[in-house]
Structures
1.
Amino acid sequence: MTKVHPNVAAAAEAAAPAKAGVDEKAKGEAVSLTVWRRSLLFNGKGFTVFDGKGNLVFRVETYAGGSPREVVLMDADGRALLTIRRKKLSFADEWLIYDGDAASPTAPAPKRFTARRHVSLRQTKSLAHLSPARASSAGGGEATAPSGACRYDVEGSYAARCLDVFASSSSSATAAGAGEQRRRVAAVCKKEAAVGPDVFRLVVEPGFEPALAMAVVILLDQMHAS
């Protein structure tokens, strides 16, 4: 049976190998991560993510009494990588993704994406959409998305741990062409061993950020639970 957690005796050395595992995307290889829907904290909730060697890569820890509206994705050393925050007073189910710790009192965290649950009366594979965060132009003009930014569409079934993340260009020139080009950048699938729905694989294609792929998993978990 596949190991779910790393060797405890090597926990102090987990951070360096974990970074090396994530950097496999630089070699042009897909990164396969094991996601465990469980926190390392006693009685805590969250996620623990390992690379192919069983080294800790990412973790999410929700403390007792913590707000379910805000989740922080951390690296193996506990540094905040991304913050996923549910928007308040919104007519739709929307979330915001920030770089780093959005609650940091020292510096405001840059907003990267706005995520929305897909809602339709018709049966569809679409689950969610992520759009680049818009920034106000100089002089207070109309807010625009960063040049060359991509938007992402999530399709499949999170409950069945079977879904794909597709990237598409936000450029109007691409959209005006002969059909918008999409490419799969990440996928969630069941583990080969029968370990239950709380342990599954996250496969990240070359060129896509593993931390952002894990943020999508967190988003889907939030949407599924809400």
Note: The first strand starts at residue 31 and ends at 36.
2.
Amino acid sequence: MNTRPLSLTDDSPVERGDAARNRKRLLDAATQLVDEHGVDAVTMEAVATKAGVGKGTVFRRFGSRAGLMLALLDHSERELQHAFLFGPPPLGPGADPIERLVAFGRARIALVDVQGELLRAAESAGVRFSAPAHRVSLIHVQTLLREAGTVGDLPVLAQALLAPLDATLVLHQWRELGYPLERLADAWADLAQRMTRPAHR
């Protein structure tokens, strides 16, 4: 498995030094705005103010608000990937594979809480199942199923486990059906445990 976090869309060139630090600074500022005020608060001007730079710097870096939104999603996706590839257990290495599987689902649902609208937009923009980031998640879940001793068609089972984490579905269940995110996370954990249970009888 590739151990380098991959992009939500195509692999982007590796940035070096100041460019990478400045990009992270801007994206961290945008993430804080989402956390504090929601997606609508993320404007080029607001990000510039939050990061302490001129608005032109944000436009030069991302081109437009749409470019900023996609970069923000990519930033969050890479952070999640880094957490499950290298972070502390139970999400990262070192825990039982089933515990890691459950932690992965909970982390993915928690990400929808903060950036659901952005994720839904990305899912509908033609980068849903073919995106490198999606393939990383698929391989990760498949690997954990194998390590847990799960019997069956692991690629298909991994896809079945990822399906309930779809941002569009989670947002529908949460906002329109009124299911709390914790309930969705618990249900996903139950599904993951049921899928792996036969190997532990």
Note: The CA atoms of residues 134 and 148 lie 21 Å apart.
3.
Amino acid sequence: MTVVTLGVHIVDVLARPVESIPAGQDTHLLEQIRVTAAGAAAGTAVCLAGLGVPVASMGAVGGDELGDLLLMIMERRGVDVTGVVRKDGEQTAASILPIRPDGGRPSFHVPGANLGLSLADLDRGRVSGARVVHLGGMDATWGLHDPDFFALLAEARGAGTVITMDLLSNMADLMPGARSFLPYVDYLLPNEEQALMMSGAAGVEEAALALLDEGPRAVLVTLGGEGSLIATASGLTRLPALDVPVVDTTGCGDAYCAGFIAGLVDGRDVTGAAELGTAVAARVAGGLGSDAGLDGAQELRESR
């Protein structure tokens, strides 16, 4: 496989537009409800497949019906899920997302089987043999905070594999663990809040440069409607977001990662890959769920 996404797998149940939670037994009629494959590994994998990039995903789901559903959705989208292990007796991670009219997304979440993912669940050969390995949600996969996993990443990098990393949460207590991965990562792609918490910096530019000093070739901080900030040894570059109507911001970070990785696979430089990431994120923001707008997305790789 060209790309392996490794980490968090979640079933998202999304509904829009939700202005309030009904009181008592009341019912509000909505325009749309969807179920999607999400999470920093699964969501990115689905977007990569939509871009025409061969991709396999590795992680853990429960032995329940939600796990069946998640794997079915990913397979239908073109992702190789043979590296996703089933954990009998555990629940598949899931979120309920009531999407506000402005695209905001509060959530109700069960972390489920992701918390039990460990090095023993992984196919080491797939990791070391991939062109790119995307670490999705290392802040929430505590079983991989393991020196032997770090050694596997170092081995893979030594063989030419590129390592990218995105986070799942905005929980300050989880940031130190995620930070320990930085010496083994080529490209870090946090959002602004995550970058500030990981670095302890007061501003996003200072945060990006501080994280860059810990090992990555580049740090790309997503800034929502303000676009993204790229930090490399050559300095700082800002990329604006595309001006599109926003339906739902769920999965935009995963889409940015997928576009960036696809750009790297295509031989683009960091800025060119980030521009593709920006375009893919804009596509996803225009619909409901982390896989919205992916039909025809492969054309973005050819047109940008």
Note: The two ends are 24 Å apart (CA to CA).
4.
Amino acid sequence: MKITIMKKLIFALAISLTCFSTVNAQELEKSLLWEISGNGLTVSSYLYGTIHMTCDATLDEDVIKALDDTSLLVLELDMDDPSMQMKMMKGLYMKEGKHLKDLVEEDDYQTISEFVKSEMGMPIEMIGHMKPFLISAMFYPKLLGCPVKSIEASLMEVAHKQKEEVLGLETVEEQLLVFDEIPYEDQAADLLRSAKDKLVKDKASFEKLLKYYSDEDIEGMIKMMEEDKELSTAKHSDKMLDNRNKNWIAKISEFSKKQPTFYGVGAAHLAGDQGVIKLLREAGYTVEAVH
């Protein structure tokens, strides 16, 4: 597989799991940066909601200060792991040799094929065995309308300058497993919808998401999913976000007790009844917005 395609796939995985969650009854303040204290911590750690694809990845002064006050950066994945590409290759493809043409009608397959050829310049046969959600995610950079920048990359740049380690809350294997738990047919339906309208709805949704992020409205980001319950990201939000959030709490606790840590995770993970903020509070931590 060509290296340029692999780069697109790695980027696709990084942004695939971060834009949707469940509705929350308790409103949270508009803030992307949250301080974690109490429950035996002698020094605060910080939780920051990121967006993996943006036009401006400049970090605010409060975020820089929080990075200065911590000694470890933990993202969703260990983006410094030199074996990430190899690990990802092992989990790209559907089980049992399934192909996209096994999941949709012949006419719909042709629609997707023409869309992939037009937008990506490659035949669908080249990537047809991949999990459909990852094929969809390859088109995400086209939703932005500007050169893609990453908040995670900016966070890592600071960490590297401070000679701090970068670790992850989960592995590449664990992230890719999510796309085996969600029915391939549902993933293919999402891809077909994008192909039929040539990303029109996707672009409108992403523009709205960026506005919520700019306003630091983590509640608004969550409520977006209520507008389109047919998307697999909404239908399977328990697998996309909730279960992962729960798994992260013990790891956040472990890291934070060892040293003050800065956590950068997709902003949609923060709010909600199963969001990281509420789960940390239920675990006994004080989690307060930093304005």
Note: The radius of gyration is 19 Å.
